[in-house]
Amino acid sequence: MTGLKREGDPVRRLEALRGTTPPRPHDARAIAALAANPGCARRALMDGAGIDKDAAARHLGFPAPFGQSPFAITRGNMFEALVKADGCAELLRMLRELLDLPVEEVAYHDVENVGAHLRHTHTRSLLDHAARSTTAAEPVSAATFYDHPLLSLSIAGHTAYLEPDLVAFQLGGRFHVVEVKSFSVIDGQADPAAVAAAARQAAVYVLAMRTTLEELGHDPGLVSHDVVLVCPENFANRPVATLVDVRKQLAVLRRQLTRMTTLDRLLDALPDDLTFDLRPDDDGRPTRPVAELADALSRTTARYAPDCLSTCDMCFFCRDEARQEGASDLLGRQVRDELGGVASVAEALGLADGTRTPAEGQEEIARLLRNAERLRRECLT
Amino acid sequence: MTDSPEQVIQNVLADLPRHRGVVVDSPPGAGKSTLVVRAAAHIAATGEPLMIVAQTNEQVDDLVVRISDKHPHLRVGRLSAGGYTPPPRLLELAGVRVATRVQDLNDPDIVIATADKWAWISERVWPWAIVDEAYQMRSDKLLRIAGLFERALFVGDPGQLDPFSIVDGDRWSGLSWDPLQSAVSVLLRHNPDLPVHRLPVSWRLPASAAPVVSQAFYPFTGFRSGTGPGDRRLELTTGGMGTVHDRALEEAARSGWALLELPNRHTVRTDGEAVQAVAMLAERLLQRGAVASSEQGERPVTADRIAVGAAHRDQVAAIRAAGLPPEITVDTANRLQGREYDVTIVLHPLSGRRDATAFHLESGRLCVLASRHRHACVVVARAGIAELLDAHPSAEPVQLGVPVKFPDGWEANQAVLEHLARHRV
Amino acid sequence: MSLLTSLARLRALDEGIAQPVATVRHCHLSRRPMVFIPLKLSGEAAAPLAAMLGTDRDDPRLLVVAQPRNRDLRFAWAAELAGVLLPYVEALTVDTETVERKNADPYERAVDAPQLVVPNQGGVAFTALLGRSTRFRRADGPYPVPGSVPLLGRWLTYFAERAAYPGSSIMLAATEELGRHWASGQSSLEDANLAALMSWITTGPSDEAEDPLVWPPAGPATDPGFDAEVLAPAIESGSAERVAEALRTQLEPTWRLVWQAIDLLAALPEGASVAQRWEQDRGSFSGMAAHVAEGAPPQARRDGAVAAAARLARMERAQAAYDVQRAYDDPMVMAEYRLTGEAFAGEVVETDPENTEGEGRSRKLRPLVVVKTDDPVRLPQGTSLGTPQRRGQGAVLVAADEGLITVKITKGMGRGKTAAPGSVPEVGERVCYTSLTDDFQGSATLPEAEATPWTHGGPPRGYTPDDEDAQEEWS
Amino acid sequence: MGDRLDELERRIDELRAAVRRAMRARDGGTARSLRADLRSAERAWDALVSGEHPQAKQEPPRLVTVREQVHQGLRLLGATAQPRLIVAVSDAFFGGTLRSDRLTSLRRDEERSFRSSPFGRPYYLCAALTDRLSAARGLLTLSTWPLERRVVGPLSPRVDFLNCAIAVAKQRSDDERAVRLLARMARNIPGATDSGLAPPDPARVVAAARAELAVHVERDTRDRAELARRAAVQLGDTARLFGAATLSTITKEKAK
């Protein structure tokens, strides 16, 4: 880091990248997704600049293949309502069973009772109040549940507002993030990918709460790294709670947030006038010529992998680019890794056929590929 | 701060009659075998029969020899499978008898066999057992033999590689008796009140290595080295020629670590340049007449005191094919577990890779490779591992009910890499 | 995946058509497979929406839950499913053969077994969940269901468990089997899309395969757009016909694809060990049928300590055998081992069929064979070898030098003084040797479940399915 | 008829595809008009298949108004409750035809009616009041209840739930729906049920709920009394029933 001058610079550059398009605020899911492909410079820049990747992909004609069924959405909402119904009656039962929550701990506080614009400040003051109660000489009353809290976390200079499902307090004097998900836990097990996604998301809330407490001068350790995951059990609607340790997810998250503040190197490599602006009109419809935007994006290096197809809004655009380039990335990280330094399909096949002379450092992969090609031919004839 | 090693051993022995099971965690070279031998003699002295379980035939033979050496009056039975030929050093021992059936052992004080062999024994119960390398033992093996003993001492290194299977074990994940978990994990999940002791001092790792390995792989428990800085010396008796290989050896001799960094490039796994570098280092180490001095005296670092470690079998094959003297051990991390050398040369698991997989990042793998040496460890790696770690996507699935394992492979790799960077040539 | 498969994928990408990675078929194909395409309601764990199934490609049965949130309709659907699946399964239990065994009583084995074919792994997982959600139900008590439903649950559970068993063909996922025989020019992740994989194999890649309007997802999840625009209004309308028709449009394309996949696989010659594995499948099927007939309880929710260890041992054994058998059956699979130096193939250039070892009575015939090979052999001296050309034989690597490998045949030569004709390869013959051999050590016995040791939690509490199981609502 | 049916099916397929394409392109306007076409095609298809003109779905005869059903439910419960619970009670004890989604606009309608002619009705369904004296989200009460019952402090949701459970248990109905409702409530009260399947014993539920109530009631009563006092002092008639606007409450708070 060389002095103050550079500090403002990247922020300005990132804003120029976004141009007149309004920034897309990060939610917990988006923050959690930062760890999905940290090596991708294109994604890092777009996220850093707060660009709406979904809108960009759509405008480019490569809408992402993500969508949620209305049935799933309804089910999710219904389940969350059930968990919180009647003063969190179900949740109380589970926490009493799982964590020995004392019977007198039932106080419920709905943060949303204040106006929307005050939710965040109100959340802070409630957390502050609750945290004080742990050290106060006089007993200070703190609620057991804080419903609809609104937290904030600074992401590359932008403030992201985050809405955990619920925060529980008074489980051994520590805050626990409660994450309500509608995927099922069947015989004690759930879809590991879904649990991992929930854990990453919950880690964002834990971090946001710890940051808030630290800002307020409290011990961030008051927020437990164990989050309470609430899911339907087996095939019924009855909720079940499981503790999930998110320490690893927290470590990953911290790493990724630190990375986001070090985009200078990536920005330095870009032409000064480069922008990913969609130039929205008054109705918010993008007006930028598609070819121009595609061209601007192609100035940044993507690190496409098939895994992007389930995590990144830009995936179809980048896959198409990889196809045009004939990149072996298309076939997956493992294939790409196996091919050593050979990045293109044509190059690899040329080496296998012997029609291409291996460049320096390619002798070994060339030998392996030629051998593999010989064996394939032998088997196919 | 912590108890002395002797105090820990005393505590362990005192705990034995008080609990059904006692676990002792032993970081690399912390005197696990010494403890096993001590405990064996201690139990044998009570006059009650003892069974000892180890994981491989070499480990069994090793223990037989050690016990017999230290306590020649004890009668030791070495139980083996049909195809086993005992090494000559075993046959020379007076109190040792080798057989394939328990009844042919003539009722010795101690019976030792591999876990696989024990699984075939039945209809007898020993009052005592010692299970060695218990963290590398899969729990289904323990299930097969746990009926043979009443009480047991479990000894092992929690930082090394976890057991594995060729089949997908997801259907058992989260179960307290998941057969793919280690014997100790399953034991402790069912018996959380059993005492767990830790040996606090590594006698193997030099003062230059213990803190690094301790922080990277044993972040919560930790250990220290039994020797101080300067107690171990590695000297190269002939002069160097200033090549990178020589400089790497010199750095290793001086500081206990060296990182021979090759140019950043994505390569095939059997990266020829890296394999050559490894072979050259081994060759030069011998040529330069390395001499190791330690509390055990001064001795030349002969080929049998050198090991080369790698992650994959094809890498091992490629290194072997590079023409090393056959006395030098070349093997995968898996097979180097529990072994000890003066100098190790390691092909970094992430060298030349573009993407790290869970296999490459498994902390136990790097831990084994970085903790086999008494004097120095030379690592060969291509530049770019830091970037690779930085770009690593973190999306590991999470199974409910499975305790999170520490250290995290990524963090451990990062910690070791940071340390190695200070010894780069 | 090996470099060989990677190369095939590269080639497929370049040529625009999938490339073979097997020369024979490694799964058994039934004469009457039951194709089963289940769909589930989005957002629910195991709420069935519809299934298309049958053994006749021209006559699929469509079963639909017109109101997926109605519990009674779901169980009625499960009963309908049982009405199709159970007769198919039960008919096959009738014809059996008696199998003699060494050191054990002979047993009865079905001459044929059922085969369930689903489009993808998701289909297998959903079958397992359906099985789990139905097998503990009761026909009596507070939440009764049709009597066939719990029985269906047990069979569905059995099918799904076999699908996880290495080398079994009782339940196949089309994408998995296709992927074992062809390499597409896309990633293995994308291969999970049946339409995409099929288009790579038959006509070449097509973006239409990813367009849910052209190729609806092969299930069990439906396309969110379809849910919103078609299914939700149809359900809302209360018209069972409309729901059924809507779901038919989502199932029919997949139905055709699965049958087409079966045709593709059927066109490959069957691997030599396939019949042997199918024999084990038949044995397992008869075991399950006997279990059901004896009135044994349904499969436990999860394996106990002893059951888990036993299953793991069986599966590891099966996996090892499957890997070896595929390599021995198929030169293309063996080529993977040749590439890594664990096998080599070449021409016999010299033999010594009369070579013997030992003296007098212990004198044994140990013929020597020298093979010239281009393969990069990475096997140390003394490695035990096997050969697909003479499966009963065992050999040992004696020397390897500059592409000339000397092999000594040590097993399967019989007791004769001279080699039986054909037992030693002739000069000029092409042979292959590999360190991959199927001499798996049997595993030691496990304790009885009641004798589970203290290290593993002690004897399990006896499990009897109770009303709680039957009560679990289907939300 | 077959031809017509085929043609309709083709048309329906085309329209569905077009709608989904429009949705993917986020072209809401086109999607809406296509959807309208689709609905009419589907109706025509239904008509053709069932051989008759579809009748407008018959509403079940509703003798009791939604408003009155909610009133009934709340009276039975005797405490502030969420629409969900009111629906379940109405269903279990009054053979009600309520659906939760019908209750969403209810409170606003009541407030409108009150504003146009204050106290024109014998009772109003109104909102519970939060500690900020604003309307609590998703909690209904009766205007005829004392203010102390209509305000909610931190412990009130639990206290109200336990009181509701007692009220439900006291009904002692054998109706399957009532038993299920009680079972669902009872399992969330410590000591109210065994783990078994048998229907809960109402007397035991009452006893268990009272036992827990005893823990909370003192503080809750104090909190509510204080809130009620503030509400009586600070709020006008309308706000006392339907809650103060949030912002004004805040301003008052700050002014203090």
Automatic annotation (TrEMBL), chain A:
Segments of skewed composition (Basic and acidic residues): 1-16
Recorded superkingdom: Bacteria
Region Disordered, residue ranges: 1-25
Protein name per Swiss-Prot or TrEMBL: Uncharacterized protein
Source organism of the structure: Nonomuraea maritima
Automatic annotation (TrEMBL), chain B:
Domain DNA2/NAM7 helicase-like C-terminal residue range list: 275-382
UniProt keyword annotations, A-Z: ATP-binding, Helicase, Hydrolase, Nucleotide-binding
GO molecular function, one term: hydrolase activity
Transmembrane region(s): none
Residue ranges that the Swiss-Prot or TrEMBL entry lists as coiled coil: none
SUPFAM superfamilies linked to this entry: P-loop containing nucleoside triphosphate hydrolases
Family matches, as Pfam families: AAA_12, AAA_30
Identification of the protein by name: Part of AAA domain-containing protein
Organism: Nonomuraea maritima
Automatic annotation (TrEMBL), chain C:
Disordered, as annotated region: 442-475
Biased amino acid composition, Acidic residues: 465-475
Protein name (Swiss-Prot/TrEMBL): Uncharacterized protein
Automatic annotation (TrEMBL), chain D:
Protein name: Uncharacterized protein
